[in-house]
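Blinded run. Sample ID left blank on purpose so nobody reads anything into the name before looking at the predicted structure. Input follows.
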Amino acid sequence: MSKANMSESVTLRVPADVLADIEAIAEATERSRSYVIVRALRTYLMNEGSDILAAIKGREQIAAGEYEDMDDVIADMDRIIAGKVA
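Blinded prediction complete.
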């Protein structure tokens, strides 16, 4: 797969102060604005974004019946604590 096929163009509006910071960082690091923006987006996706994606995945798992009943989990924990598990 060529590098051109690995990315897509996106148009967005950015507040002037944010763009000024992006441009200052790009210039200071000798990187493109796109590089700085992609790095910022990846950081977001690793933090807050990952929580949102995990919630989406969890909802999909629940909808597919892939979950454990909390009462059963607590009962299992009680048995483990009581030493009644083989």
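Unblinding after everyone has recorded impressions. The chain has a mean pLDDT of 91.
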